[in-house]
Each structure stands twice: as structure tokens, then as C-alpha cells.
Amino acid sequence: MPPPLRHLMTLADLPPAEINRIIAHAFSLKQRSKPWLTPPDAAAATDRIKNLRLPSQSLFGKTVALLFSKRSTRTRVAAETSAELLGGRALFLGREDIQLGVNESARDTAKVLSGMCQGIFARVGDHSEIEELAKWSDVPVMNALSSLWHPTQILADILTLQENAALFDPTLKEDSIKNEKRAQPKLLDLPPLTVAYVGDSANVLHDMLVSYPRMGHKLRVASPKQYRAPTEVWDRVQQLGCDKNIVWVEDPKEAVEGANVVVTDTWISMGQEAEKEERLRAFKGYQVTEALCKGADPHWKFLHCLPRKPHEVDDEVFYGPRSLVFQEAENRKWTIMAMFDILFGRWALEVEGAQAAADSVKN
Question: Any signal peptide, and if so, which residues (predicted)?
Fold first, then answer.
């Protein structure tokens, strides 16, 4: 009998233990895969070249349908390249490529795709679209982005922060040095952080709201009152008990006070272009700069899911030493790869299944 069907709509669906397993598995896949992808001359200079092993091949002979109704750079490239590394194929299906929304319903599309593919990775508009796909699909469906949630982005963010744990806790510096010398580096434990989010309450923030507090971190969010989390998101936040570690303010300077990490995102999401001028006025003063963040922890770091616009964060921060954005962007690949391996390759999203997937990389 096949394992029960699981979908991933948001990190609210996962307990912290499962999130931690996914992060650990992503890091393990990254360490296993990097030597294969390193230019030969550079790889030959490392001891790891002697013991090169393929990462998990759980997608061998399998196909993941990339059902994208919105354009993408990081998500598409991460999905296609990670499926290849797992031995499978990612089939890109843009809205101009298939009949969905033209001559065919989401129900019929889900049935057709799940008869030919082993997983559906969907980047949609309204969240109801991916819920409809999951309702009728016979294979796992994973949210690549919807109007409400963006789970793969927050997985990448958590991995990035954990890889840089020593930046937030000086006592970990010696462990970090030892880690760099190991043939197989290990993730260090991330200390409790104060994370400040400055900007619109959109899908990136929503998955932060349901994950960071449950993993021991505090969230301070600055947004105008009219741009705060919708009821359906805040209901999930409260159900999970996350609201106890979330503070909402209007003043961005108040939000970043004492923050270890400062995060922002687009103020104008796809489909909101008609609101551009209104939103630019509402978020005046929210641009992330050194001056805005002078009250933050002296060693604060910056995250942004990309693509970035200068009115959201200035060049000094975005391209400066505080920024982790390009490491964060690369980690979209490794966290998506981990999810493809566990969810599409093994149908094993629970902790035990994730552990089995991680163990397969070590053996």
C-alpha cells in the first residue's frame, strides 16, 4: 500500500521538528552535491573529490510538473536544476503552454497531470487555485508561491540563517572554524533571534509568522495598519500560538530596534500594479538603510527574497557586508531539492520519512 498522500501549502502544515529535518536534509544534499558541480580544477584541490557520491536519486525516471501561472527566476531555476540532480525531470508548464484556465478546469488539469507526473509544484495567483489542485490531485502538490503563502522561501531563509549561526552568537565562532575544516561540515544550532520585517504583509511574511515563533525566534513587524495580515492568515497564527512572539508596529525604526535580522520584500506584488502609487505613499520611510537600522544589533544581517527594487532597500545594505541575499537565493535550490526528494521522491513528509531520506545521503 502506498504511503498516505501529503501536500505542502504552508509551513503552518509542519511541526518544527519536520521543518528542522527538512533544513538538515537540504544542508546534507548541498554538501553532497557541491563537489559534483565544482569546476574540476577547484574540486581536485579538495579531499572530497576522492569520495564523490551522487545525491539521492529518488526522482530517477520520475517527472515533476512545474505549473507556473506567474513568472519566476529563482523558483524555476531551483526546481529544474534540483530535479536533475535527483535523477528526474522538471517539466515547465507556463500559462501559455497548457489549457488550464482556458479550456480546462483545475480539477481536470490536476487529474491529467497526476496521471503522468509524480508531483506538482505550483506557482499560482490566488491561494484557492492551489487548494483546488491539491483537492483533486492523486500525487503530492507543493506550493511554489500563492497569494497567501511562500513556504519554500522561508525554508531557504532558515537554512541561510543557520549556516551563519556564528554571526549571531560569538561563542559559536570556534565551532564555526572547526566546522569549516571538517570534510563534511555540520549545521550549527541557531541561537534565538529577533527578526524584524519591514514592509507589506505578503506571502513571505505570512510563512514567517507561522514558523519563526515556533522555532524560538521573535518577530517584530512594521507595516501600515491597512497592510497587515489577512484574517485567514492571522487565524492560523493564533491557532499555532505564534502570536505570543509577534509584535506589530507602524514605525519601522521601532521594529528594527535590537534586531539581529532585518527582512523586507516587495511592496507591490504581481497583480497589484494598479495600487503602485498608493502603496509607495503608504510605505514612505520604510526603505531599509543603515540609518533606519541604527538601533538594530550592531552585527545585524539583511534578507530579501528577490527581485529587489531600490525603494525597498538601498544599495549600501543590499550589496554590502550585511546582506545574505545571494546565499539566500542559492539556498532556494537546496531546500526545494530537499522537498522534492522527501515529498515527491518518497512521499514521506513526516519526521521519520525525512530522517530516512537524510540517512540515505550519508550511506
Answer: none
- The whole-model pTM stands at 0.91
Measured between its terminal Cα atoms, the distance across the chain in Å is: 26
Residue 68 phi/psi, 5-degree rounding, is -110, 115
Report the distance separating Cα 266 and Cα 242, nearest Å. 24
Cβ atoms 211, 237 nearer than 8 A: no
How far is residue 64's CA from residue 300's CA, in Å, rounded to a whole number? 38
List phi, psi (to 5°) of 120.
-125, 120
Average pLDDT, the chain: 89
Residues shown for the chain: 363
Q: What is the CA radius of gyration of the chain?
A: 20
With a cut of 60, say whether residue 360 has pLDDT above it: no
pLDDT in tens, 67-104: 998 888 999 999 999 999 999 999 999 887 776 756 78
Cβ atoms of residues 218 and 194 within 8 Å: yes
What pLDDT, on the 0 to 100 scale, is given for residue 170?
A: 81
What's the pLDDT at 243? 96
Distance set, CA 72 to CA 75, 76, 221, 241 (Å):
6, 6, 26, 33
DSSP 3-35: PPP--BS-GGGS-HHHHHHHHHHHHHHHHHHHH
Residue 61: all three cell numbers together = 525516471
Backbone angles phi, psi at 87, to 5 degrees: 90, 5
- Nearest to residue 8, comparing CAs of 241, 346, 339, 231? 339
285: cell is 520611510
Taking the C-alpha atoms of residue 345 and residue 361, their distance in angstroms, rounded to an integer, is 14
Range 295-307 average pLDDT: 97
Indicate if the pLDDT at residue 182 is higher than 80.
Answer: no
Please, are residues 339 and 22 in contact by the beta-carbon 8 Å criterion? yes
Is 117 catalytic? The answer is no
Using the predicted structure, report yes or no on whether residue 173 has a pLDDT greater than 80.
no
Rounded distance between C-alpha atoms, residue 1 and residue 113, angstroms: 22
User: For the sheet containing 141-145, what is the strand order?
Assistant: 89-94, 63-68, 119-123, 141-145
